[in-house]
Amino acid sequence: MASAHEQVVPAKDGTAQLGLSSKLLRKPWYLFWRLLGDSLYKDREYSLHVPDGYRTLTPWFNIGNGEPFSTLIKSVHAGGPLSTSLDRCYQLYQFARRSALLDGHMAECGVYTGGTAHLLALTLERFGNAPAKLHLFDTFTGMPECSDPQRDYHSPGAFSDTSLSAVEHRLSAASSCAIIHPGIIPATFAEVEDGSRFSFVHIDVDNYPTVDACCRWFWPKLVSGGTMIFGDYGMYPYRHSTRAAVDAFFANESEKPLLLPTGQALLLKQ
Ligand SMILES: C[S@@+](CC[C@H](N)C(=O)[O-])C[C@H]1O[C@@H](n2cnc3c(N)ncnc32)[C@H](O)[C@@H]1O
Predict the structure, then answer these.
(1) Whole-angstrom Cα distance, residue 80 to residue 154?
(2) What is the SS3 assignment for 126?
(3) How far is the CA of 144 from the centre of ligand 1 (A)?
(4) Could you tell me if the CB of 228 is within 6 A of ligand 1?
(5) 149-181 burial string, b = 16+ CB within 10 Å, else e?
(6) Cα 253 to the chain's mean position, in Å?
(7) Which of 96, 102, 129, 140 sits 20 to 30 Å CA-CA off 22?
(8) Does 207 sit in the ligand 1 pocket, CB within 6 Å?
(9) Is pTM beyond 0.70 here?
(10) Partners of residue 228 on adjacent β-strands
(11) CA 197 to centroid of chain Cα atoms
(12) What is the rounded distance in angstroms from the CA atom of residue 60 to the CA atom of residue 104?
């Protein structure tokens, strides 16, 4: 069911897109929740789980606890903007940390200002083995023309308030393991050395054709035990883009997407 801020406009082909008013209300809506979270959840080791009423371990809120995640996320915040919520960052961190023990590189498709890329670079550097690299793919000029307004929540040009030089500067100051591939996915996949294998891939591109291209290219290259995580899979505005593309691809595979309570989807390769 659509939440109050999301006015759903049925599209001609039977899909549904979100109306302009929903998009305009997005920023104040999330600002409200950010303020509420900061006042009720900040620094809590255990937090109230809504609507069940029990308290669960929430290390992502407890940034002063001295654990590796809190140290890494403080460095990420100091390095620049972070547009992904802390609970989702924690999932990325714990699965990347686990994957860092495997052979293979890591990758992120959809980098924007480099917040989650920064976290992955620090995680790989701290817990990984030296030859492994973090491959990063984005236009760095915003969503490309391939996004379809009937399906995809963001229009072409969204996320253009970033730049390749800013992300390069941010990541080179943090670690030496990042390799940046600016340009349109999937063309930029050709820059990766033939035969490369991956232990961890974060796909956060928010449009159907790019999610589909990422699945086709990365899934066969994922090592046994490796992880793929899709940001926004379970988020309502992305049900016709990320979720539809992931479900269509994995309908023909033996592994199926595992839904995390954060809205991300996880694939663990057998
Ligand atoms: C939601 S943002 C990524 C957020 C980022 N992971 C973070 O935490 O800040 C989505 C990004 O995907 C990129 N993107 C989407 N489709 C793409 C494509 N076909 N080629 C390259 N970049 C693409 C956009 O440029 C945008 O920066």
Answers:
(1) 23
(2) helix
(3) 9
(4) no
(5) eebbbbeeebbeebeeeebbebbeebbebbbbb
(6) 22
(7) 140
(8) yes
(9) yes
(10) 201, 267
(11) 20
(12) 27
Q: Which atom of ligand 1 is nearest to the CA of 184?
A: 20
Per domain, the residue ranges of the chain are 66-268
* CA atoms of 255 and 270, how far apart (whole Å): 8
CA–centroid distance, 205 to ligand 1, in Å, is: 4
| Three-state DSSP state, 170 | helix
Ligand 1, residue 210: give the atom nearest the CA. 19
Could you tell me if the CB of 160 is within 6 A of ligand 1? no
- Positive or negative, the CA dihedral 113, 91, 154, 198 is positive
Fold assignment, 66-268:
Rossmann fold (3.40.50)
pLDDT of the chain, 270 residues: tens digit per residue: 333 333 434 344 434 455 666 777 888 988 898 898 888 898 999 998 889 999 999 999 998 888 999 999 999 999 999 999 999 999 999 999 999 999 999 999 999 999 999 999 999 999 998 899 999 999 999 999 988 888 888 889 999 999 999 999 999 998 899 999 999 999 999 999 999 999 999 999 999 999 999 999 999 999 999 999 999 999 999 999 999 999 999 999 999 999 999 999 999 999
Q: How many helices (H) and strands (E) does the chain have?
A: 7, 11
